[in-house]
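Researcher: Quick test of sequence recovery. Tokens follow.
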């Protein structure tokens, strides 16, 4: 599955929905992981959790991330996800957000390697459920558990381990320690994918070139930039510093709006679309006024007109 170097869209709550995954796949993402889905929610029939599972024919293989703390619940949830169309399951063992950690899930599992091992063992007992885990290097700067988790994941036949090389306590502060990740990956017996602070093509190229890594995962670097995957691949495959022109950017913005409307309906999609629009136009002249205006608009047609106005201004060359 990870026989070649892969560029993956990270699972991001409120971001990597079906619409954004489709968009990133269209620009060359090799995989796109779903938003975090509650294992307990799936097992107990929560409607919102089930909706997050929705597969799409253009998003294959369909990689679903689950979070939870109870081994049998996670195993059952993984089976439900597979029956609903998932091809691969990721278990979140690295999310540092308090509302996740306080349930014993996410990065809380970094403090309980035995529980984490039981989760992986439970998944290994379900041979029809291929799975990965996503971790951080440890709970804080005093604890380093990455090597231990790599060994456990290999023992229980995980397909890969994804690591964001920060501690959970760091959240997103400071810098990701990729050298620490490289050292751990060199000793690993399963594919290792790195994530964290990849916001430019040269950094992506350098990390992909490391022989111990099987791929990279892009997160915040894709905000307002789903074409980042193509930027990287153009550099790798053709040696080009490619950037989309204003026409393609506008087309992408409109496509994103259409996909969101299809997924969520007119009213709810607007709330999500505005957030992405603010990222799409970040840093261009007139962005502040544009953001202020779009948050007063109440339908997609009005937003489209406003986007067209922005793109027809001479300053659009700076976009």
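Model:
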């Amino acid at each position: 599955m990870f026989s070649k170097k892969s560029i993956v869209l990270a699972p991001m709550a409120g971001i990597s929905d079906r619409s954004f995954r489709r968009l990133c796949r269209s620009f060359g993402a090799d995989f796109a992981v779903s938003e975090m889905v509650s294992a307990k929610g799936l097992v107990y029939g929560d409607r919102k959790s089930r909706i997050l599972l929705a597969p799409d024919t253009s998003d294959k293989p369909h990689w679903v991330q689950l979070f939870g703390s109870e081994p049998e619940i996670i195993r059952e949830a993984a089976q439900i996800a597979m029956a609903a169309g998932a091809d691969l399951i990721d278990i979140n063992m690295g999310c540092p957000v308090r509302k996740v950690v306080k349930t014993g899930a996410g990065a809380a599992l970094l403090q309980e390697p035995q529980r984490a091992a039981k989760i992986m063992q439970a998944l290994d007992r379900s041979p029809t459920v291929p799975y990965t885990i996503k971790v951080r290097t440890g709970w804080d700067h005093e604890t380093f558990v990455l090597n231990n988790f790599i060994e456990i994941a290999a023992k229980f036949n995980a397909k890969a381990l994804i690591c964001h090389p920060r501690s959970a306590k760091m959240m997103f502060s400071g810098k990701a320690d990729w050298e620490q990740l490289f050292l751990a990956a060199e000793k690993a017996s399963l594919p290792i994918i790195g994530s964290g602070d990849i916001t430019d093509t040269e950094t992506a190229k350098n990390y992909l070139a490391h022989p111990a890594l099987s791929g990279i995962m892009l997160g915040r670097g894709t905000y307002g930039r789903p074409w980042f995957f193509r930027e990287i691949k153009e550099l790798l495959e053709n040696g080009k510093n490619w950037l989309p022109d204003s026409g393609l950017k506008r087309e992408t913005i409109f496509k994103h709006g259409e996909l969101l409307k299809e997924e969520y309906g007119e009213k709810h999609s607007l709330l999500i679309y505005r957030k992405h629009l603010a990222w799409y136009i970040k840093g261009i002249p007139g962005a502040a006024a544009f953001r202020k205006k779009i948050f007063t608009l109440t339908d997609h047609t009005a937003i489209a007109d406003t986007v067209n106005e922005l793109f027809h201004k001479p300053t659009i060359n700076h976009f």
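The two ends are 37 Å apart (CA to CA).
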